[in-house]
Amino acid sequence: MTWIVILGIIVVSALKLLITTMPTPVVKWFLGKFELHSKLEAAYTEIKKGGETLEGEEKQKFISAFNEATFLKKHYVHSGNEHYFLHPETEEVPYIIHSKIGKHDFKLSVYIYKDYVDVIKQYKKKIQDYTVLSDSLSNTHHINQK
Questions:
Q1: How many angstroms separate the CA atoms of 103 and 88, rounded?
Q2: pLDDT per residue rounded down to tens, the chain (146 residues)
Q3: Is the dihedral of CA 41, 47, 53, 55 positive or negative?
Q4: Count of CB atoms within 10 A of residue 97's CB?
Q5: Which residues of 101-122 are buried (b: 16+ CB within 10 A; e: fewer)?
Q6: Of 100, 96, 86, nearest to 128 (Cα)?
Q7: Greatest extent of the chain over all pairs of C-alpha atoms, in Å
Q8: What is d(CA 86, CA 79) in angstroms, rounded to the nearest whole number?
Q9: CB 3.0 to 4.6 Å from 69: which of 19, 73, 103, 134, for a disulfide?
Q10: Is-contact 112 60, C-beta < 8 A?
């Protein structure tokens, strides 16, 4: 019985030491696997709104504002409810973003409102919905609409 306790203490101590001394790139990679609001890279990203593709400086500003947006909350998408998230009853025309992180392609539908931004993320056969706050996206979008 004493050996089990001693062995348990040694294993837990080694695990704690390993976790606390991991290099920063390894930690970022590991946390990136679970990150919902992924950062976009201009080289792997295509942005469209109403069939029109964003290019150049306008694309860079959008990507920068999207990357700097603050994650607010996640909305749970239950099986059978995907249609309500993919085709919301709104007058807003979404920005459709096709991008790639690592080997995985994904699609984002970004609905920009006055106070918040809704993002629907589709990858593999999964759908995730979340809300972010971005003053620069909201302000730019509503100025362009007027």
A1: 29
A2: 788 999 999 999 988 887 788 788 887 877 777 778 888 888 889 999 988 998 989 999 999 999 999 998 998 888 887 877 877 887 888 999 999 877 889 999 999 988 899 999 998 888 999 999 988 887 765 555 54
A3: negative
A4: 22
A5: beeeebebbbbbeeebbbbbbb
A6: 86
A7: 75
A8: 12
A9: 134
A10: no
The residue to which tokens 């999207």 are assigned: 66
Q: Which residues contact 88 (CB under 8 A, 6 or more apart)?
A: 111, 118
Long-range contacts of 70-76 (CB under 8 A, 24+ apart): 70/132, 70/133, 70/134, 71/36, 71/37, 71/130, 71/132, 72/116, 72/130, 72/131, 72/132, 72/133, 73/130, 73/131, 74/36, 74/128, 74/129, 74/130, 75/129, 75/130, 75/131
Question: Which residues are within 8 A (CB) of 122 and not within 5 positions of it... i.e. 6 or more apart?
Answer: 86, 106, 107, 108, 109
Are 116 and 132 contacting, i.e. CB atoms less than 8 angstroms apart?
yes
